[in-house]
Amino acid sequence: MKLSAILFLLAALPFAATAQSFQPEMNPIDPKAFGEPLKAELITQNMEDAKIPPIPVEISVMLKKPIVMGCQYIYRVTNRSTEHAVRLRMYAVYDQQYEEKIKPGESIDLLANTMDRCGQTKEEKKEKGCINCAPSLNILEIIVK
User: Which residues neighbour 78 within 8 Å (Cβ) at sequence distance 6 or greater?
Assistant: First the structure.
């Protein structure tokens, strides 16, 4: 039993090492417009070993609409590399996972529903309940093509 648990943990380590979380900021003036893109560089040990440079990406988010039990957001991920396509396995909410290939210079949009709002009172939840939630996008796996 212990051996099985140890083997499972060792098998999970390569994926845990590449998991990265990003919290792009919402547009404070108009949450239904994309906020300032968060700039990042994605790299894995396999990329370093193959002498592949980090992949520059931009991640931004906007509020699509409040929904009955939470909020609906659109995440935009842009591959700023000029030579490498990238396949990303990611999630905004763990039970809504995405696997997308993004060519150099292209962007993809991901729709995600959350099951919570962030205001304290009923009025805050109704008027500003989705604005200050600090939505995040988590990248589980990075494969360069």
Answer: 37, 57, 58, 59, 102, 105, 106, 107
Higher pLDDT, 94 or 125: 94
Tokens of 89: 């396995």
**Averaged pLDDT for residues 122-136:** 73
Q: What percent of the chain has pLDDT over 90?
A: 54
Determine the Cα–Cα distance for residues 62 and 8; give it in Å rounded to an integer.
37
Every domain of the chain and the residues it spans: 18-144
Mean pLDDT of the residues in the chain: 83
Q: In this structure, which amino acid lies at residue 137?
A: L
Give the DSSP per-residue string, 75-123.
EEEEE--SS--EEEEEEEETTEEEEEEE-TT-EEEEEEEES----SSHH
Q: Which fold has domain 18-144?
A: Immunoglobulin-like (2.60.40)
What average pLDDT score do residues 75-99 get?
93
Cβ-in-10-Å burial (0-12, 13-18, 19+) of 49 comes to: exposed
28: its two tokens? 């404070």
